[in-house]
Request: fold
Amino acid sequence: MSGSESFISIRDVSKHFGPVRAVDQVSFDIKRGEFFSLLGPSGCGKTTLLRMLAGFEVPTKGELFIDGQAMSTVPPNARPTNMVFQNYAIFPHLDVRGNIAYGLRKARLPKAELDATVDQALEMIKLPGYGSRRADQLSGGQRQRVALARALVRRPKVLLLDEPLGALDKKLREEMQLELRQIQQTVGITFVFVTHDQEEALTMSDRIAVMSKGKVLQIDDATRLYEAPTCREVADFIGTMNFFDGAVATVENGHAAVDAGPLGTLWVGTGEHALGPRAPVTVAIRPEKVQIGWDRPDQPYNVVEGRIGAEAYLGDRSHYYVEVPGLARRVAVAYQNMARSLDNSSDQGRTVWLSWPPDSAILLPGA
Amino acid sequence: MSKAARGDPLFVYAIVYLIFLYGPVLLLPLFSFNDSIYIAFPLKGFTFEWYRQMVQNGSLMDALQNSVKLGIVVAAISTGLGIFAAKAVTRYDLPGKGPITGLIMLPLVVPSIILGIALLVIARKFLDIQLSLYTIGAGHVLICVPFAMLVLVSRLEGFDRNLEEASFDLGESGWSTFWRVTFPLALPGIVASLLLCFTISFDEFVLAFFLAGNETTLPIFIFSQLRFPNRLPGVLALGSCILVFSFLIVTLSEWLRRRGVQPTKQGAAI
Amino acid sequence: MVSATDKATVDRSERSTLLSRVRGVFLRHEALRGYLLLSPTLLVMLGMMIVPLTALIILSFWTQDYFELDRTFTLANYAAIFALAEGPIDLLADPFGAFANPIYLALLLKSIEMSLSATIAVVLLAYPMAYFLAFRVTKNKLVWLILITVPFWTSYLLRVFAWKVILGYNGVINSGLMSLGLIDKPLEFLLYNPASVTITLAHAWAAFAILPIYVSLEKIDRSLLEAATDLGDGPVRRFFRVTLPLSMPGTIAATLLVFIPTVGDYVTPTLVGGTSGIMIGNIIQSLFGKANNAPLGAAVSITSMLIITLLVCAFLWLVGYGRMRRQGT
Ligand SMILES: Nc1ncnc2c1ncn2[C@@H]1O[C@H](COP(=O)(O)OP(=O)(O)OP(=O)(O)O)[C@@H](O)[C@H]1O
Ligand SMILES: [Mg+2]
Reply:
C-alpha cells in the first residue's frame, strides 16, 4: 500500500438543491486504505457528499474520481463503492443470508462457494447461526453488522458509511467503533465514514474532514485538528475552546504579542501564520491548558485575574467558569481531580489567577 | 372493545350506522330465496328456483363471461400503469408533480357520465371506432388507474426508498432492483390493486352503458332486466351472488393493502 | 479512403458515445427518469381523458341537423341553454326569468340542490362514525375499516336497486306496513321523487365520506388534544376549538368527493327518480340517445362541469381551503 497515493479525488464538487448549497465547491483527496471521516454539524452536507460518491446524487458541478476513473457517467450499481446506510436498509423480505448474498448474484458463484462466503461473512460479524433470521428479529447492532457484511462481501474499493453507529447506545457504539476499526485494518479497504460525533471521528479516523455549511474547513488527523485548528469554526466545533479577540502588536522570533484589550498583552506562538502588525487575530486556548491558582503566578505575561462564576464537577475533572472583567464570555478552565476528596464546598466567587505558557495557546487569523 | 366502550353513545351510533349501511343491501339475498315473484313481505317460503333459472340463462352467462374477461384485462393494465406512475411519483423529485398527480386523479371527481359521453364522442363522432368490449375497457382503465395509483403510492411510501438504493449500491440494475426489491415489497399492494380494479370494472355500469357494442357486461344485463317485473327475482339471485363475490374480493384486497401500512397515511385510506 | 470496416467502427463508437451521452443525461437529470416512468400513464390519461373531453368541447360548438352533423362553429347550443329573454326582469323574484328556456339550467340547479342535500346528509352522518373510528376504536381497527369500506366498492347499481326494492309500490316498506296492518293501501309518495333520489344517494355514497374525515382525524397529534385539556378546555370546547378545525381539510375533501360525482349521477335518478326526480345526467343521456342531439348534449355537459367547477372553487375559497392545507401537517 503506497500511503500517499490519491485514491478518491474530489474536484471542485458542488451540489445545489434549488437555493440550498448542500455541498459548496469542495476539493480534496482520500488515500488508498485510509479511514477517512466526514465530520460536521447536522445539515452541513456530509450525507450529500457521501451519496455523490455512491452515485445517488449527481454533482451540480465538479467531478469525482475513484481510482483514477471519472464517476460522472458511472451509475451507482457499477461503482466500486458500497454503502452502509444510516438506517441500515436491511431488506425486510429476505433473511440475513439473503441480505448478505444479495449483491453476489452477478458473481454467479457455485452454491457451495456462495454459502461459504456468506458463512465467512457471518463469522466476521460474529453472528454465526443467525443466517435464517429476518430483519425484524435483529437488534440495532446486529442490523448494523449485517449491513456491513452485505457491503463487504462485494469487496468494494471504497466502503461508505453514513452515521452507521448513530442509532446505537453509547456502550455498544464504543464496542462497534473498535470492531469497525479492526475490520477496516484487516480488509484494507478505504472507508469514508460520516459522523457528527467528534469523539467518534477523533478515535477512529486516520484523517478527518471538518465540514460546515457545505464547505470543508480543515482536513487533518485527530491530533492536529485538536491541537492546531486552522480556523475559529474548527476550534470551536472540536472540543471546548476559549477565545480572546485582539490585534497583533509585534512579532518576535516565532511569537506574537497580541493586544487583547481587557486582558492586556498575550504572547502566543505564531505557528505557520505570517502576520503583520495590527492584523486582527484570535487567541485560542483549551480549558485543560490553563493553569488555575489562588495566588498570582510568577510569570511575566499571559496572566489573567478573575472570579469563579460557576463550577461543574465531572468526576475525573472539574470545570471552572471564570469571570474576567471586560470579557463577555466566561473562561472555561479544566482542573484534574487528582486527589480523592469528598469536600464539595463551593469555590464560587473566589478570586483566582489564570496563566498559560505562550505555546499552549493558538493564534487564529481574524477576529 | 372494552365494557366501557359498549355503553358509549358513539358505539351505539356506529352500530346503527353499520345497519344503515348494510341493511338495504342485505335485503337482496333475503328475497332471492323467497318463493314469490313479488318482492314483498310477508315472506312466502324458501326456494332455490331463482338461482336455478339464473344458471340456465344463456345471455346472462355470456354477460358474465364478458365481465370477467374485461375485469381481468382492465385490472392488469390499470395496475401496470399504476405501478409506473406510483414509482415515479414516490421515488423521483418531479417538478410539476402536483398537477400531474391531479390529472391522473381527475376521473375520481368527474361524473362518470361525462367521461362516458366524452369517450363515446371521440369514438363515434371523431374516430369512427366501433363500440365493443374494448371501448368499455378503455373507459374502465381510465377510472381504475387513479385507484390503482392511490393503493400503490401508499404501499411504496410504506417502505424506505433506501432499500432500492441499497440494491443499486449492491450492483443491481434498475430492472433487477424492481424485481428483487420493489416488486416483492409492493406485492400486497399490487394484489390489492388488481382485486380492486377487477371489482370496479366488474361492477361498473355507466361507462359500460355508453360504450357497449353488441356484447354486454353483467351490470348492463342486470339493468336491462330491471324493466321486467317478472325478471326481478332472477336479478336478486344474480345480485346476491355478485354481492357475496365482490364482498369477498374487496375484503381480501382491503386486508392486503392495509396490512403493514399505517392507516394514517393519506393514500391508504381512500 | 475509408474502408468499410473503418466506417463501421467509427459508426459504432459514435453510437456508443451517443448512448453514453444519453445515459449521462438521464443519470444527471433525475426528473427526466421520473417523467419517462410516468409517461405511459400520462399518455393513457391524455389520450383517454383530455383528448375526449376536448372532443366534447369541440362537438358542443357544432350542431345536429337531423342525421347529419353540421361542423360549422356556432354558439347556438350555448345560446339555447342560456337563451336570454327580452324585456326587464325582476331577478330577485324569479332568478331564472332571465332565461327564456331555462330547462337545462333549472334541471342543473335542481340536480345540484338534490346532491347537495345528499352530500350534507352524508357528511353529517359520516363525521361521528369517522370520529368513533379515529378516537374510540383501539382493537380490531382493521376490521372496522374494512367493514366501512367494503360496501363502497360493491356494485353501485345493486345498492341503488336495493332502494327501489325498499321504496317501491309493492316494495319492502309498503308490503311490510300493510302486512302489519298499519296501512291498507301502499304509500305512493315513497318512490319516484326527489326525496327518494336524495335518500338513495346519501346511502350509496355514505362510505366515501367516512374515509377522508377519518384520515384527517387520525392525523391529529394526540398531544394537541392533551394540550387543549391542559389549558382548561372541556371536551366540548376542545372539540370545537381543536378537533373540528384540524379535521376540516378531510371534511371538505369528503364533501367534494361526494358532491361532484353525485351531481352527474345517472343510475340513481333513473332507477328511483321517476319523472319528478330526474337529474341533469338523464337529460344528457337522452340528448345523446333518443333525442339525438349530441352537440346540445355536449354543451349541456360542458356547461354543467363549468358550473360545478365554479361552485367548488367558490366553496373552497369561502372556507379558506388553501390556507388550511398550508397550515395542516
Ligand atoms: N433531496 C434534497 N432536497 C433538498 N434539500 C436537500 C436534499 N437532501 C439534502 N438537502 C439539504 O441539504 C443540506 C445538507 O443535507 P445533508 O443530508 O447532506 O446533511 P448532513 O450533514 O448529512 O446532516 P445530518 O447530520 O443531519 O444527517 C441540508 O440543508 C438539507 O436540508
Ligand atoms: Mg446525514
Remarks:
- The first strand of chain C starts at residue 63 and ends at 65.
- Strands of chain C lie at 63-65, 68-70.
- Residues 103-136 of chain C form the longest helix (34 residues).
- The CA atoms of residues 174 and 186 of chain C lie 5 Å apart.
